[in-house]
Automatic annotation (TrEMBL):
Similarity-based family: Belongs to the methyltransferase superfamily. HEN1 family.
Residue stretches making up the Methyltransferase type domain: 317-408
Iron in keyword set: no
Organism: Dictyobacter kobayashii
Protein name in the entry: Small RNA 2'-O-methyltransferase
Keyword Nucleotidyltransferase: no
Keywords for this protein: Magnesium, Metal-binding, Methyltransferase, RNA-binding, RNA-mediated gene silencing, S-adenosyl-L-methionine, Transferase
GO-annotated biological processes: regulatory ncRNA-mediated gene silencing; RNA methylation
């Protein structure tokens, strides 16, 4: 199997630095299914081409009974076509470039370069149209040559094999990432076991582009070898990560504290009554009043924090912790002995690490907090043994069909003594001038409940899992439509504790 990557960026030989492979010599690497060879057919300042050649040992694959996908026959197309073997080789041989790192030329890592990738033989039984539907939405110019079954017998028709050339001006890491994910999608026959780890790989490598891809559902389905449960999990987490990514975009750019479209909508209607008065004393003992505008999301966090603090909890969960705004408040409260923040978004957890300055935190303080990657619709024993849990503006991102799984994960299995949940109040949406009637505050909300709907759902949970529940408004309250957010505080019955 042969993959070539070319550039006309000048000097073109800088490609060797990005790939961490010297154009002046051939390099070989042992893989568990054969060998990979890297060489440069051309390397001038005007044009440079790197080639990755896989030499797959098909006979050994058949004999290796421990392989997740043993071959049924010794004669097969595995040594010749782009498949999951190539994805593994990309990660092993070009891993540093795939992850977007280069010490010698760090500026080139983030520079869009004129790149061309050619896959010598690609299996695609769905034809040229499917190839284009995969790569063209990512900005590639796609050239496709379909091969006949037999050149000596054209009447036999065309084969499902293509030579594909992709051209674009993009970062090298983007090109490698797209190939890493989409090659197995085309081949649809991964050579290793597919489990939960593959969902994590897909979301990690698909971050920033997969959630916007028009074929994301089929990409996930093919990548995960048609496993419906894993596909459903991946799509659910993708929706939540996409929403959080939108909400955190301005955090990344350091433009504004108010990160999401939803928050922008909510902020527009903040009345004067939301301006909080803070008293500060001077050296002479005179007091002066300073005004600070607190946005709605900050009010949610403060409300949840106060509930958790007043509960007397020592061990606290922040579920759907995002970039760590609530975690930061919880860490400042010394009565909390341990705090766990869980989120489905790698990007959010990375932002949380930066926001909390974990790298510079003292060892004693660092022991108080754990950041964990996971989903709220699957039982996670890491969540057990905590006194309180905060779930701030999270449930509306879950599909209604998955709420029952979330309920069991939190209230049955984790079973903290106190749970605080906030969610938008749909009745208040009429107060947002720019929000069209019938639309949600954020495009990735799966639902938005009225106060009655939220309270009915909460009371059913309380009755089923042995809790009592009380409700409070969050934000400025209107006499007719209530507050913009609503909060339910669940307290476990003493008899159940």
């Amino acid at each position: 199997m042969l993959l070539t990557i070319s550039t006309t960026y000048q000097p073109a030989t800088e490609l060797g630095y990005l790939l961490h492979k010297n154009p002046a010599r051939v390099q070989s690497f042992d893989l568990n299914f054969g060998q990979a060879h890297v060489f440069y057919p051309e390397a001038t300042e005007q044009r440079c081409t790197a080639a990755l050649l896989l030499d797959i040992d098909a006979v050994n694959l058949v004999r290796n009974k421990g392989n997740a996908m043993a071959m049924d026959q010794y004669v097969n197309d595995r040594p010749y076509v782009a498949s999951s073997f190539l994805s593994v080789a990309l990660a092993d041989v070009f891993g540093t470039a795939l992850n977007g790192r280069c010490k010698q030329r760090p500026e080139l890592v983030v520079t869009p370069l004129p790149l061309q990738a050619q896959l010598a033989v690609v299996p695609c039984r769905d034809g040229e149209e499917w190839l284009r539907r995969l790569f063209e939405p990512l900005g590639y110019t796609v050239e496709v040559v379909q091969h006949p079954l037999d050149e000596l017998h054209p009447e036999w028709g065309d084969s499902p094999y293509f030579t594909v050339t992709l051209s674009a001006t993009c970062r090298l890491s983007e090109l490698l990432t797209h190939l890493y994910v989409l090659i197995p999608v085309l081949d649809n026959a991964k050579h290793y076991w597919i489990g939960d780890d593959e969902v994590n790989k897909l979301l990690q490598r698909g971050q920033g582009w997969l959630e916007k891809h028009p074929e994301r559902r089929r990409i996930a389905y093919n990548y995960l070898r048609h496993k419906h449960d894993l596909t459903q999990e991946a799509l659910e987490r993708l929706v939540i990560e996409a929403a959080q990514s939108d909400e955190e975009a301005s955090e990344i750019e350091a433009v504004s504290e108010e990160t999401s479209e939803a928050e922008a909508i909510e902020t527009q209607s903040v009345p004067a009554t939301e301006v909080l008065e803070e008293q500060a004393g001077s050296e002479t003992g005179q007091e002066k009043s300073t005004k600070k505008r607190v946005n709605l999301h900050e009010q949610r966090l403060l409300a949840a924090f106060e509930v958790v603090k007043q509960s007397g909890a020592r061990r606290v969960l922040d579920l759907g912790c995002g970039e760590g705004r609530l975690l930061k408040k919880l860490l400042q409260e010394k009565s909390f002995e341990h705090i766990l923040g869980l989120d489905v978004s790698y990007q959010a957890l990375e932002l949380a690490q930066k926001r909390l300055h974990l790298a510079r935190m003292s060892p004693r303080q660092r022991e108080r907090i754990t950041l964990a990657h996971g989903a709220l619709t699957y039982r996670d024993k890491r969540l057990e043994g905590y006194d309180a849990a905060a779930v701030v503006e999270v449930i509306e991102h879950l599909d209604p069909s998955r709420l029952s799984a979330f309920e069991r994960v939190l209230f049955e299995f984790a079973h903290p003594a106190t749970v605080v949940i906030t969610t938008p109040n749909a009745e208040y949406n009429v107060k947002y001038e720019t929000l069209e009637s019938g639309k949600f505050r954020h495009q990735d909300h799966r639902f938005e409940w009225t106060r009655e709907q939220f309270q009915d759902w909460s009371r059913q949970i309380a009755e089923r899992f042995g809790y009592q529940v009380q409700f409070s408004p969050v934000g400025p309250e209107d006499a007719e439509v209530g507050a913009p957010s609503q909060m339910g505080v669940f307290s476990r019955h003493e008899s159940v504790a």
